[in-house]
Structures are given as structure tokens and as C-alpha cells.
Amino acid sequence: MTQQQRRNSNKVSDPHPGAIKKSIQGKVRSLYLLFILLAVLIIAQILLIQWGPNGKGFRNLANSRFYTTSTIYSTRGNIYDRNGKVLSTDTRGYRIRLDLHAPALYSDDSVYKRKLPALCDSLVAMFGGRAQDFRAHFDTIQPKALADTGRSRFSQPFPIDKVFNQFEFDRICTFPMMERRYGMTYSTEPLRHKTYGALASYTISRCIEGAYDSLIGGTNGRSRFVWLNASHSRKKPVIDSVNKPARNGSDIITTIDIDLQDVVDGALRRQLEQENATFGTAVVVECSTGEIRAMSNLKRYEGGSINDDNNYALRWQGDPGSTFKAVSLMALLEVGGTSLNRRIVNGHSKTKIIEGSYVRDTHIVGDGSGETTLKGAFIESSNIAFAQTVTDVFKDTDKKNYPNYRRWAAYINSIGLDKVRNIQEIQGYGFRKIKDPSEIHNKNMPWSKKTLTNNAYGYELTMTPLQTLMFYNAVANDGVLVAPMLIKQIVTDGEAGAPTPTTVINPAICSQQTLRKVQECMEGVVEHRLGTGHALSTLPFKVAGKTGTAQVVQEVGKRGKDKDGKVNAYITLDGSREYLATFVGYFPADNPKYTCIVSLNTFQKADENKKIYGGNLAMPVFKEIAEYIYAHDPQWFTTARRVQARTPKAMAEQAPRAKEGTMPNVEGMGLRDALFALEQVGLKVKVKGQGSVAEQSIKAGEAISEGQNVTLTLKEPAKK
Length: 720
Known about the structure:
This protein is of the alpha+beta class.
């Protein structure tokens, strides 16, 4: 074949250019369709993974690996005393975890084995317990940590599972092995800190913080974070719809004066220690407003430790004893038509059976004569006189309708003591109303012919110390019964709300004529030489009040037997008797400003002849509290100066002789004069005991500086 023929042959076999283009386009379309199909399959698979039956699990897995949502804790509101001192606030707390898988623990001939004994010893020194117990804890969690290479190995518990404060955390960080390189990790969270430690801790923590938790606690927020590394040790907040800011809690301003609280707590604590009492409570209120200035509640535990663990003022209830005679006196005068000069003949016996009830006095009234008046019976606190008088005035011959007894019960119930059961939102027990004759078959409150007689001197009814206090406060407050107040103001987002107004429960518990007579009798308890509170007559201001001592009813099943072998509600299984000794009063009596109650609970064993009275157990605490208020209340400074002028020997011969900048000699002085002398030279005074100054921590003549602390030890003069 020639060359020309070959060229002609090739031309015939070459495709047309248009055909080539169509061929290529067909192939491209096929590829496009393939890619589209693959894309559809991929998208379908993605949708299936995201929204199919297992989609939620996959999404959660992704979120947990790359994102986390953390709680943003709100800051709890602060609690302040009335002068703006912080009582309770939030601080940073630390929760410690361990990673016993950390490589550094097992390098250098096993740091873990070498340092573990020292760590256990350090934990014992700080927290107590036994080193072998801490060692056993580590021996238990170490194999788990070594066997686990996942995240849980970072979460082995520290031997002490609690939130540590800054001081505790800093100390723990100095212990052997407690470093980051050895696997120690921690997280922070809010920790409540009471600025004054155990002082009023139950009132603050359990009462105020518990009752007002919704206000103080605020509202926690939340925030979305993205993890910055695979080990999940670093994270960064991101903007997300789930984010919610935290709202801090409201601040609460209380009516408490923490300086007075310290004095009240100290005086009550010393008396519990000295008298080996079981528990005690002391409360101070401002007469006109009902604001609680101090409230101490202390309990003695086995071993002798004394702690603030219960609000006995609000939550102990029982027979009030002789402090109820003020209520009986008011009823006798107001609705019984009785006179203070009513002649009463007790006779020369200390015991008497009245309406089947065995009534006993501690002494023969009328300075041994056996005769007195109603006023005298109140001053000397005669059970027999009050039981007999109330029975005579309100006893009924009509055994069907009991008009006189109902008149007695109706008046006492009308006073409003049943409404004095709470301090604002803090719950307490209520006053058990006087029994009604129609409830003779009531198992819980059975009425009997003895009930009226026992009511007269404070039995067969129950009251709390707070209710007793507020009744006496009403007598001081011109007959106006007000509710006790502990919360004065609430501050939200920096703005103070309106101050809490005083709540009037009863504007007039009796007529003004009756009120003046009751006040006269209460003043007589202190001023009269036979009064059970006469020891307070030495104070430079007038006090009105009443002593009271009540036997405490034992629970069913815990009652012992008397000498006749009969079960007695007032005797314990070991033969002891339980008493509540009380003094309640107000001062200054001629212009009342404060009312105070002190109650101590104690036992008298079967073989003891222990004298338990409100006058010798509770009244010394009342006296110490009243003296402190008198010496520190600015409105009474002028009075203090007048008292100083009336004691020229002590003040002119001792304090002025001290050189400027040196300690004066106050030994032998009464507390009020000593306080005046020392505070004049700028010293801060702490007081221990009762009576006159026996010792001063800074010796007379030593150099002193303004603001320096000095402790005075008081002692009662030796009895002859």
C-alpha cells in the first residue's frame, strides 16, 4: 500500500470531533452522578448518625469529648450584725482528689513508699485518728489507680472527704506527697465561713441560714466550655444558648449585737461550767421593738465540752414554774378582783395539800411569821400562797359549766402567748393554752381538779423561755406584747429593703392600773430585803423581774419511782430530779430598755442536797449581762459618770494616782467602776467571773497603750 493510500485509510477511521466531545461529556456526567450519589449517601449517613436511632448517643459522646457544661455558683449573701460586722460569709473552699497513677510517685526508688508514712503522720497531727487507718485507705485506693489508665484515676478520694478552708488547704499542701507532680488535684467551691467561730453559730447557721436559704442562697448559673487539650485539664468558656449567669444571694442584717453576744455567751458558758449544768439559754431583747440583741444556747456534753447546738430559747418547752406567777398575779388583779393587800396566811408549815395537790415552799413566808399579802407572796415567790389564792378566787361550785375557771383560762389565753412561737420565719414551739374543763377526757391535756391549783404557780402548762421573756417584755413595754425580731433588713443587689417593722401581737395585755401593780411587785422582788432577786439591788440602776425554778417532767418510759414505790413523773430512772432555773427581768425598771431571760437546766441526784434556784443559778448571769450593757450603752454614760462620783474612794484614790500611760489599780472595785476607769485610759476590757475585781492581767503601774486588751477576773466575796 502506497503512502497516499495509508493516509486516506487513516482519515476514514478517525472519529468525528463532535463524537469525541460527546463521549467525554458522557463520561463526566457518569462521574458527576457517581459523586452526587456518594454525596447523598454520605449526607444520608450523617443524618442517620445525627438523627437516627443512635443519634443521641453519638451527639452526647461528641459533646462530652469536646464540650462540658459547668455550674457557675452564686455567692451566698452575707449575714451582718446590727452594727455592720460580718457574721457569716462565703469564702473559697477546696476539695482535694488524688491520682496515685502519677509517674513521679514511683520514680527515684518509689517516692510513694518512702513518703507515705510521713504523710499519714501529718494527717494524724492535723485531723486526729490513727496513722494505720490512713495507711489502709491509701493501700485500698492505690491498686485501683494503678489498674486504671482512664480519667477515673484522677478521682481517687482524699482520706478526709470535706471542703477545706484556705488555712487547711495551705497546710495540707505542705504535707509530703501533696504536690501536683505527685498527683494531687483540687477543685474549688464556695465554703461558708462564720467570722466569729462558734459564737451564735447555731442561731446563724441553722436558724437564719436555714429559714432564709432561698434569699441568701441566690441562684446558680451555668456556662458552656470547650476543652483545649485531650487530657481535659484546660478549658475555655464559649458563647452558647445554655449559658445562664449566676445571681448572688441577698445580704441579711440581723438585730444581733455581736459584742453583747460575746458577753452573754461567755457569762452563760462560765455558769454552765461552774454549776455543771446540762444546758442553758440567755436572750436579751430591746423592750420597745422586740429586737433580739443577743441569744445564746449552750449544751454540755459528756467529757465536759460545751457547744452551741440547739435553740433552747425557742425549742425547749415545759412547765415554766414560778416565772408564771406574774401571769397568775395579772389574772388575779385584772379579772379576779383581787387586791395586792389581800391577807394570806400560810401558817408555819412549808407544805400544804390544796385540792389534792401537794404544794411546797422553800421557806416560811413573812420573815418566818407565816403571814403575808399577795404582793409579799409574789416577792417571796410562795407556791402555797399563789396556789391557795388562785384556787379560792377561781374555784367553781358549778361543776357543769365551770364559769370561774373558764374566766381564768379565757383571760390567760387572750394574752397572746400562743402567738409568740416563732422568730419571724424561724420555727419554734407554741404556748399550750390553759386546759378547758370540757377536755377532761383529752389524753394529751386532761383537766382535773388539781389543774387550777397547779396552774397558779406554773405547772400543767408548757412555755418556751422565749415566750416567758416576751411576756415580761410586755410588762416592761407598757403592756404592749410584741413579736421577737431577729432580721432587721434585707439587702438585694446592693439595695437595702425597708427595715422590718415591729409586729404588735396584743396592744394591751391588761389595764394600765393592773400593769402598774404588776410592775410594782416585780420591782419589789429586787428591792425588798425578802425578795428572791434582792442580790440585784446593789446595781446602780433599778431592775424588775422574777426568779423561777421548775421541776421538769420526764418522758413516759424514763420515769423512776419515789420512796413509796410509785412511778413519779418528776423522777428519772436513776432517782434524779431535773430542774429549770430561771431569772427574767427588765432594766432600768423606771424607764425599761432591755429585757433579759436566763435559764439553766440541771439535775439533782438522789443522794445530793443541791440548792437549785433561779436566784443562785440564773441570776448571776443576768447580773453580769446587765452590768455590761449598763457600762457600754452610750445612753447610759452620763449615768456611769454619776455613779463614779458616788464612789470617790475607789476612783479618786486608785485611778487618778496612776501615771499617764500606766495601768491603774482596779483590784477590789466593782465591775462598773473598773470598766469606767479602764475605758477612760483607752483599754479594751474582757471579764471573767462575777463579783468584784480579784485579778487584773496587766499589773498596776505597767506601761499600757490605747486599744490594748486587759482581762479582769471577778470573784464573789467569801461568805462568812
